Amino acid sequence: MNRRTVIQSSILSSSMILPRQVTAAVQGIQGSGGIITRVEGIGGGFDITTSTTTRGKDVIYPKSMEGIWTCRRVVTSIDGDKGQAELAWRNLGGMGTIGEVESFQTRYILPPGELNVQNDYEFQGEVFSGVVLDRGYELTSRTRSEVTWNIATPDKIVYDKDDSPVEIVVVQRQIELPSERGFGFNELYRITSSAGGIFGDNPVQRAVRVQRRYIRAMDEFGNRIVEGLEIQKTYRVLDGIAGIEMPTSTTKSSIQLHHTLHVRL
Description:
By secondary structure, this protein is mostly beta strands. The chain has 3 helices and 14 strands. Strands 1, 2, 3, 4, 7, 8, 9, 10, 11, 12, 13 and 14 form a 12-stranded antiparallel beta sheet that branches. The chain has a two-stranded antiparallel ribbon with strand order 5-6.
């Protein structure tokens, strides 16, 4: 068994990949107002038009990740509808040819105290104030597009793609706080973008779930890095109801983060 297999096995063992199992480090699912129902043809449905997450809660990363990192990520597999998978990947910022390595900068920041973000976590008996992802900085670096994002309202981001706006809103979230076992999240997005083709700029809503988990690791030179696995799922949406029981595609990606200054994680 090689190093990559060991890392992926560790990541896959997380309850973030199996969200029904909740450990002490995994917080409950945020997302109120999303009505659970059943719709013929799509199974269990979730109303992505009404759900909102909890104010003052965001994905928390270790304090030691504060600053700018270089992210290298690559799609490793796609199951199901490859067209839907690639569309979701591109709407979330994917650039170039799917399956090739992407490289861009990302940044983690300490939220201002006045926002009352719940970012404390315990690690090895000490309490730390974690950082959050600067989603606007990352999407700007990844797409080279004009991006609108505010740390005070982190669950909404808008950017220009092919001269048309794309709006990404988090409607459901589950967080795994940093611990010896790793950290991560499970988020459901409502993505509004132009339909394209014969439908032109008419807006269409899509539902995409992203589950991501990270662990601390070391590269071949002995430098501390962060390794991650992402699972992206797409769903059919009918009149604002997403069929969250029956994904139309599943995309797996591997992620590796390198700090410009190697610090103790």
